[in-house]
Specification:
Length: 135
Amino acid sequence: MAESRSRSGGGQEANPSREGRPSAGAYDQMQIVAQVIDLRMDVRGLETKTERAISDIGALTSEVKTGLSAANKSTHAVEVDMAKLVERVNHLPSKGFIVGALLLSLTVIGALVIFQGNIARLVGAAPAVSSVTTR
């Protein structure tokens, strides 16, 4: 417990002698120097890792920007194609028009079938029905 307080800057001095006074021996100084060197190496390692992480983040950021740019272009192309499709659909005939045209065509064909004898007589292509005798 006393060692942990002395390392963390607690109330007791490092390596007290039997009399209770700190000893200023070479062992303490070498241990402190070794710890400082270890800390410096740890800091250098952290700096290297931090620089690597920053460069990786920069590379990822540029990749994301490139991807977003491509996605924006694709989205714009889809919007343009969708506008073209909507315009083409707007020019298609409606269901009412198609049904009306079909009914009109059927009416004209039915009238031609029903009145084909009168039309032929009018044109003069066939003899009248009353003049033909059947026996």
